[in-house]
What does this fold into?
Amino acid sequence: MAAEAPVLEVRGITKRFPGVVANDRVDFDVRAGEVHALLGENGAGKSTLMNILYGLYRADEGEIRLRGKPVVFGSAKDAIELGIGMVHQHFMLIPVMTVAENIVLGVEPRRDGFLLDERTAEERVRDLSQRFGLAVEPGALVSTITVGQQQRVEILKALYRGADVLILDEPTAVLTPQEAAELFEIVRALKADGKSIVFITHKLNEVLEIADRISVLRRGRMVATFPRAGATEESLARAMVGREVLLRVEKTPANPGEPMLQLEDLHVVDDRGIEKVRGVSFEVRGGEILALAGVDGNGQTELIDAIAGLRHVASGRVRVAGRDVTNGGARVSLDAGLGHIPQDRQLRGLVLEFTIAENVELHDFDKPPASRWGWLFPRRFVERARRLIREFDVRGGGPLTRAGALSGGNQQKVILAREIDRDPQVLIAAQPTRGLDVGAIEFVHRRLVEERDEGRAILLVSLELDEVLGLADRILVMFEGQIVGEFPPTATEEELGIAMTGGRQREAA
Amino acid sequence: MQEEPGAAPSGPGLVERYRVRQKAGGLVAPLLTLLLAFLISGVVVLATTGSFADTGKTYRAIFRGAGLNWFFEVGHHTVGLPFSHARVWFPWNTDDISSTAAANLEQTLILWTALVLTGLAVAFAFRCGLFNIGGNGQYLAGSIGAVLIATELPHLVGLPGALLAIVSVAGAALAGAALAGIAGLLKGTVGAHEVITTIMLNWIVVWVGSYLFDIGGPLQTKAAGAAGAVPSSADVPDAAKLKVFWGDPLLQGVHVGIFLAIAALAVYTLTLNRTTLGYEVRAVGFNAEAARYGGINVARNYFVAMAIAGGFAGLAGALDVLGWQYRVDITTIQGTNVGFLGVAVALLGRNRAVGVALAALLFAGLSTGTASRNLDPTIFAPGVGSSLAVIIQGLVVLFVGADLLVLIALGWLRRVRARPARQATAAQGAAP
It folds into this structure.
């Protein structure tokens, strides 16, 4: 296979944006029947390169060759016509239309000239899905199917348009471990059929599982291309970050103290009136990290919001450092000693239009030293921000930089700095490393362990089992609004995975 | 992926990116907007007058009609210092209050005072993420409030001197604040959209005012001399009138209320940027969810921001009544659009104090400049003139609303200009 000529090849691709060289003389190719993984930290230039391959950007320099012939893509349409398909990280499906309608959209089979021939559409979709083992129900509405199924619809959409080269942009970011395993099966089937697959990710274990070759981008440059044989997680991480990275969190056994966060039979209802948290009780002690594992949408979000005073508690009690904060609102929880790293840093954690200095004071702007008698002291904002920027190694701007201008990892550091600097008794970290790269993840993890050792009670909510197993001192699994099991950090991913999908609900509870 | 600028599919969409740039301010887009509006209005003028020369003349007439030419007659003059008999050097002639330029400028400044305040009424609410369309109602609430206090309060207590004016102004601002506060309260508690509620409140004020002051209304003036005139309230007593410091009070001079408008601009900026109240308002306006997470009471801020906004508009109403109208009549109640112009002022001024001041000057100048007495009747038929003002204003609002398009066009221009340059450098690099 190695001697085979590449299907798609780029040579010397350079793409500049104002102030950044996103791709600097990048070479990359993919062969027929090959999975070529593209690794890199956030901002390394992966998406830029793929957008060039898919015709969304035009390279400033360099050439693209398809089956040996130079091509120029004016738009994504050109790329699609030449057999390149892309599955974006965020799906581009229309929820109110059926699976088949979504797949044929734009190239619909017609009858009588302009009417959609639904029967033919569904048949073609069924044929295609059987051929590649992509189980979907053509007549189902997209809004009613799972995320994993939606992803299959996206892949089918590309195949339907005749894609030979498939670009998958961080395909596992939204999937459960089981769904990810299913995706890998699909990728293998596609490969066996002679399709070429470009697999973009920053998860090292996935790369080693699925890829034939692995290329690593760092700061816009292609630093290395490894064959799978011989590559290790350590060597890939080093290539990505450019230094040695600790992939495993180093920590001593926990030394738990007094219970700092106590939940008693908590019931919480979501916006649509559905009971999402159904009688949850647990406590987190000072000096321990309690991880709450579970598939997204099993009530974790509502539970955290209820603890943080951002969602009404239907019944039950929440105590922070001994103080009852049930339904007191965010202010009461904060004052009781709660720190909260929210799940969605851009939607909730930061006011993106505010400067870093203004964001750092989001909880404390209304008391000294930030203000007195309603009058702000912006210079003190800046002083505090400057100190925290130094302490938490925030890069990409100073105190007066808009928070929205920072990269995801640095935004997360600003939030972490703000929450930790308030010296909380209880720290909730909801998916604290989502979307971050290896270097930033290492920082966040190390910092969380340090805060544990300071005696804080830490509640970690994560969808990543690696993270849960690496950080936690105790693990609770949440399924359909209830705690279905408690595990020690020595549990295996399989054990957790089964509990997360409700498999061992009765026995464990 | 945030570090890659313009990552089209995974990053923010086109409109999102330009929206950020829109918020970022800058002078180019508003100026371009204006230029476009004037150019297209020029086409209208050209069609009406039929000649380029007359089009130029019309624009010059508008400029002179706004009194802006007064600033170009620089000479050696003196001006009296307030509260003293001293006189100091001043580049412009303030003594000749009967010159046409001065009279026109006085008109422009009177309107400017009101537009600054109604503009701030929209801008302040906007910074809290609220679209206050109720400027008109709040302005009228202020006018009516000021008249009621100024005419009725002396029957109850005797207030010395200027105190009546101060109480009237403060009461009017409170009336505006209370009216807008209703909309804020409804938004915060039951989520009623402020655009709907403020428009409804506008009509409530219009009809309450009509009931009070129209023919047979309980407060319609019965004063001799008012018979046959437009139905109106009684005149405010002299004690409540604001001092006119430039021009003839009988011919509508510039009153001290203009200083309140200037002060309001400063208060606006300081409140937003230097107080905890402003911090909360801005946080809610930018991202209400993050504000709530931060411990800010979002509902309370909706109320406070609307009340302050209404206070600005109410102040405008009071200053107009006590400064030059001296009464509210039914034509004003049913026909004023000062509050709606405030929306245009705030939009063009990008919700910033300096922007609001300049945009208010533009709209005030346009209104006075196109008054039929200022346009040459042989070129521009009287009566068509004020329509021209409305056309220009409409186009400005249209382009301000569409300045996303202006920004996108600017982006294209920049890229088109950058491309040949880049190709040239690439070619040079490849040549040797």
User: Anything to note?
Assistant: Chain A is about 35% helix and 25% strand.
